[in-house]
Amino acid sequence: MVGLCRRGDRSVGQVAKDFELTEIAVRDWVRQAEVDAGERNGLTSSEREELAALRRENRRLREDADVLKRATAFFAKETR
Predict the structure, then answer these.
(1) For residue 4, what are the contacts with CB-CB under 8 A and spacing of at least 6?
(2) What average pLDDT is seen over the chain?
(3) Closest CA relative to residue 54, chosen from 80, 37, 75, 62
(4) What is the DSSP secondary-structure string of 34-66?
(5) pLDDT in tens, 20-30
(6) Which end of the chain is more exposed for a tag (fewer CB within 10 A), N or C?
(7) Is 32 helix (H, G, I), strand (E, B) or coil?
């Protein structure tokens, strides 16, 4: 679909209509393909994946740190 739009065979609107998609979705895919090809500024698909993975890891580490803080507080109370 992106190839059809980028080659100029069909317009974004026509591709969206032919494949029963929203025009916004097709435009987003074309835009992301341009970023991945270095034709447009922005995060590439691999950079987006890495960012999402780092955010998940960051969230998990924060949760782990919170558990450790609670455990430390609990054991500090118990040892008094």
Answers:
(1) 10, 15
(2) 95
(3) 62
(4) HHHTTSS-S--HHHHHHHHHHHHHHHHHHHHHH
(5) 999 999 999 99
(6) C
(7) helix
Q: Which residue has the tokens 């960051």?
A: 58
**CA-to-CA separations, 57 to 47, 62, 70, in angstroms, rounded:** 15, 9, 20
pLDDT in tens, 13-69: 999 999 999 999 999 999 999 999 999 999 999 999 999 999 999 999 999 999 999
pTM above 0.90, yes or no: no
> Domain segments of the chain: what residues?
1-42, 44-80
Phi, psi of 73 (to 5 degrees): -65, -40
